[in-house]
Structures are given as structure tokens and as C-alpha cells.
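Please go through the sequence line and C-alpha cell line underneath and see whether the fold suits the sequence. See right below:
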Amino acid sequence: KAKLKENVEPPLELTLEYSGKTVPVKLGKPFEVKVGDKAVSMKLTSKPYRVFQAAGVRFKYPAHHGFAYDDSNPGVTSWTLNGNNSLIVLASSLGSNENAVLSTMIGEFTSAYGRANTRVSDISLRLAGRTLHGKRIEAQFAQLAIRMDIFALAHKKRVLSLMIQDAPKDDGTPSHETLRAEKLLLESFELIE
């Protein structure tokens, strides 16, 4: 039996069920299924992304990111897509004032991290054929640098806020994970009805 590496996540255990039969399957590894009298070679693979679709938007994000949903705050629904160094949060709130939502979020984050520990700057982003103006918050929190890019846009009688958070490398450059996640999101983001 092969020894598992301690620094590698254990493989996902899968089964293929067909015609009342069950076959154990390892993702990305060939296996055989008997179809009639013939053995057929198959392989189950996974795409490197998932497709998020809610709140009138659709976009791709890395498949390894975790998913969380929160509707505990009246009038606000949020989705959190969490990687190791990157975080994407989409929130949908009642109203149409993008600037008010953005200002509230900036105030909450600068208050949470401490004004002395945060720097806020203007940024823009081209998304779904629109140029969005937002804010970047750079904060030091317990020996950890955090960078949050926050944008808001009105869509379907609601305001959508999008936050892309990164734990940058020691030299201040974005993590590879965040660069990949942001690239997927930017290339695939669309507003839907």
C-alpha cells in the first residue's frame, strides 16, 4: 500500500453508481466498468473551477475554494468563496445607492482593523462591460498583511458589493492564488436576469 504524504490533502473518495452497481473511483485515475460483456475504460476528472450563479450574476471561481452562504442579516445576503490566501465575497443588499454601501463597508473595515493600521485608496475595475470605481484597503492585522478591493454596483433593485481579499506575499505582491481567482472572475463575470 502506498504511503500517503502528510503534507497533501487526502483524495476525495468517490463512487460511480450505474445499473444497481457501485464502483469505487479515484478522481483523475482510470477505472473499468463492465458494460454488457465488455470492459470499458473510464476516467472521472474535475474542472479547475466552479460556476457561481446567484443574485443576478454568474462567474467562475477556483474549484478548491470553500463556499458559505449567509442570510442572517435582514435585507442582506452574502456568499463567501474562501481559498488559502484569497477570499471573494459577494453581498446583495436592498437599495440602489452604491456609494452608501461602499462607504459603509469601508467604515466597518477601517474601524475593525484600526484607522492607524489601514490605508484606503481609490481603484477601478472593468467588470461586465462597466468600469467600477471602488476602494482598496490595505491593513496590518496581527503580523498579517491584508489587501481588500471593494466595489459596488446597482443591479435589479439591489446593490451588489464585491470584495476580493488577498494575503499578499512578504514582498507585497499579490498571492498566486488571488491572481488566479481574480483572473477567472474577471474573464467570466456577467450580469444575468
Notes: The mean pLDDT is 92. The chain is about 15% helix and 55% strand. The first helix runs from residue 98 to 113.
